[in-house]
Write a structure and sequence with these properties.
Belongs to the ABC transporter superfamily. The chain is globular and about 50 Å long. It is built from ten helices and ten strands. Strand 9 and strand 10 form a beta hairpin. It is 34% helix and 24% strand. The strands form two sheets. The chain has a six-stranded mixed beta sheet with strand order 6-7-8-3-9-10, with helices on both faces. A four-stranded antiparallel beta sheet has the order 2-1-4-5, with helices on one face. Helix 4 packs across helix 5. The chain has 254 residues and is of the alpha/beta class. The chain has a single domain, classed as Rossmann fold (3-Layer(aba) Sandwich), CATH 3.40.50. The chain binds adenosine-5'-diphosphate.
Length: 254
């Protein structure tokens, strides 16, 4: 097994003149559930784009599964659910099955019919997110929370080892968000999937993750959520009394 899923060393990134990431070092170990937190504009999305190879920093290195991101080709190992995952409107003419199949374009090719094994992958992914019975439904008829599950299924269908989610519960009601986080915890615990979750909702996030990374141009903290909770300055800075939440859930001795 790889020693790390993501290994970022001395990464700096600037858009023209503004330095957005400054000397960031971050290693994500296999099987962890890392919550990336930071205020608006702190560089979270930029960091994700560097991990996904969408931005090419001049300084520092990003390695994915022990390979430099510039040479990395096994993109099916990484699933990504973006904040801007477009919600489909009611008239959108595609079924849930078709939308999830899009996650297999790399394997099937555009405009080809999925083979039996691909159909099996789609149903397995839908089963994991609890939406198997919706396969033949038009995607646009589903609620925001249900569509978000479908986006997860689309990311899972290529059987990734790392799933990256950028603010996935924006616009989803509190009840659906709770189910969604439960699903992520299950993917991590039962399927061993490594998760990187970006969220401004530090309180909810710290209930589920194993580790927390706090970004604001620099990486201010990276460690277990228990260590994060024991640092009241940090947890207050990032918006919540995390100590209280972690104690409430009995995960740290009071
Ligand atoms: P976050 O995801 O934490 O909100 P971002 O990574 O989106 O932060 O943005 C970090 C900073 O970089 C912000 O000040 C933002 O305005 C700036 N920024 C983001 N994208 C661009 C871009 N394409 N060109 C110039 N500046 C950008």
């Amino acid at each position: 097994m790889e020693s790390s899923v993501v290994d970022i060393q001395q990464l700096s990134y600037r858009y023209e003149r503004s330095l957005v990431l400054d000397d960031v070092n971050l290693t994500i170990r296999p099987g962890s559930f890392l919550g990336l937190v930071g205020p608006n504009g702190s560089g979270k999305s930029t960091l994700i784009k560097c991990i996904l190879g969408l931005l090419k920093p001049k300084d520092g290195s990003v390695r994915l599964f022990d390979t430099d991101v510039g040479d990395f080709t096994n993109w099916e190992k990484i699933g990504y659910v973006s904040q801007k995952a477009n919600r489909f409107n009611a008239g959108f003419p595609a079924t849930v099955f078709e939308v999830v199949s899009m996650g297999l374009f790399g394997q099937i090719g555009l405009f080809r019919f999925p083979k039996k094994k691909h159909r099996t992958y789609v149903y397995e992914a839908l089963d994991i997110v609890g939406m198997k019975d919706f396969a033949r439904q038009p995607i646009g008829r589903l609620s925001g929370g249900q569509q978000q599950r479908i986006f997860i299924a689309r990311a899972l269908v290529s059987q990734p080892q790392l799933l990256i989610l950028d603010e996935p519960t924006v616009g989803v009601d509190a009840n659906a968000a709770q189910h969604f986080y439960d699903l992520l915890a299950r993917l991590n615990n039962e399927h061993g999937l490594t998760l990187l979750l970006v969220s401004h909702d530090v309180g909810t996030l710290t209930r589920y993750v194993s580790d927390v990374a706090c970004l604001n141009q620099h990486l201010h903290f990276h460690g277990s959520k228990e260590a994060f909770a024991k640092n009241p300055d940090l947890s207050a800075l990032y918006g919540h009394d995390v100590q209280h939440i972690v104690h409430e859930h009995g995960e740290v001795a009071p």
